[in-house]
Amino acid sequence: MGNCGQSKKSIIFSVGGEMIISKLDNTNLLLDDNNYDGIGSSYIKE
To answer: Among 5, 13, 14, 21, which residue carries the largest CB count within 10 Å?
Structure first.
């Protein structure tokens, strides 16, 4: 468990639960559910 003791920023949605911010920069936001075979979402600022 390499992430033991490390905290990660997350977003908690009123519907859909919690998503971990895996990447955030000036143009990209990548979210994932912090599961090995879980889901993820990516958003690009236009």
So the answer is: 21
SS3 (DSSP) at 21: strand
How distant is the alpha carbon of residue 36 from its chain centre?
13
Q: Is residue 2's pLDDT more than 80?
A: no
Q: What's the pLDDT at 4?
A: 62
pTM: 0.66
Dig out the tokens for 44 from the structure. Answer: 């690009």
Residues whose CB is less than 8 angstroms from the CB of residue 9 and which lie 6 or more positions away in sequence, other chains included:
20, 21, 24
Distance in angstroms (rounded) separating the CA atoms of residues 9 and 37: 20
